[in-house]
Write a structure and sequence with these properties.
The structure is a single chain. By secondary structure, the protein is of the alpha/beta class. It folds into three domains: about 1-90 and about 280-300, Rossmann fold; about 95-175, NadA-like (Rossmann fold, 3-Layer(aba) Sandwich); about 180-260, Rossmann fold (3-Layer(aba) Sandwich). About 45% of the residues lie in helices and about 15% in strands. A four-stranded parallel β-sheet has the order 2-1-3-4, with helices on both faces. Helix 1 runs parallel beside helix 14, helix 3 (about 45-55) packs parallel to helix 4 and helix 4 crosses helix 15 (about 300-319). It is globular. (~{Z})-2-methylbut-2-enedioic acid binds near residues 118, 119, 134 and 206. Its main location: cytoplasm. One of its GO terms (molecular function) is metal ion binding. Its cofactor is [4Fe-4S] cluster. This is Quinolinate synthase.
Amino acid sequence: AAEKVELKDRIRRLLKERNAVLVAHYYVDADLQDLAEETGGCVSDSLEMARFGRDHPAQTLVVAGVRFMGESAKILSPEKTILMPDLDATCSLDLGCPIDEFAAFADQHPDRTVVVYANTSAAVKARADWMVTSSIGLDIVKHLHEQGKKILWAPDRHLGAYIQKQTGADMLLWQGSCLVHDEFKGVELDLLKAEYPDAKVLVHPESPAGVVAQADVVGSTTQLINAAVNLPATTFIVATDNGILHKMRQAAPGKHFIEAPTAGNSATCKSCAHCPWMAMNGLKNLAEVLESGANEVHVDPEIGRQAKRAIDRMLDFAA
Ligand code: CIZ
Ligand code: SF4
């Protein structure tokens, strides 16, 4: 505990000295989320992290999250220094969609508009027409479908299938998945709901169809937090990374949040629903990179410029 206090003090001091700001994802350790908030940084989803970093005057951004989030920050702010506590913090969606295979797939389908999820490398974004996040993917695909466009979607197959079902769009799906959300189980969720008949079920659309089908609200991390605050219920079953429960409990004090069951050992599982790469961010390595300036994120400038077009399309659509 004393070590924790000392590390936090050191991080606060180093952020000031370096004129750096900390941006943290909802899925990282609660200590990092709290530090980001109290030092004037932000805690949010991947899109808002990149946007906040772009608009903040600090010259150095420290991204507590996973690799693609650091890259997105660099793509939107090429002139800034982006540091990460651990550059090996990646994502199964990013890993499962290597640029060579993806480019070959896209080349085979030149008649399709290429739409990729934020959880991809800079190189994959650079090969795409559009980048989307889970909060706006549905609206953008709907818009493209109405224009008569056929879509090539990558990499999350569950999110792709959900959007396909909602919009009726012609979508060819890359077969990637998130190792965290893929573990949520529909049958066990059904049993848990029977135990808590008044609970509302909040589901991130990276989850399998059998879990999404039982949701009261399907949405991005930010949308699920808003639902926890606004829905008139006191108990919620939450199917997304359990790092988000910290924010939900802060935002909706007095409400009761239960992790949705995973393959691990259903309702008694305390840490199954947590991303191992998000967990690589800690107070210790954060303090170390602030001290040394190591772990800088680099994106090839030409790839960054092309990837930015796909991101800007989405931002313009949202505006
Ligand atoms: O699952 C993830 O990594 C999410 C939800 C990222 C994001 O967009 O914030
Ligand atoms: Fe990737 Fe899933 Fe981890 Fe998010 S929670 S970073 S989608 S592996």
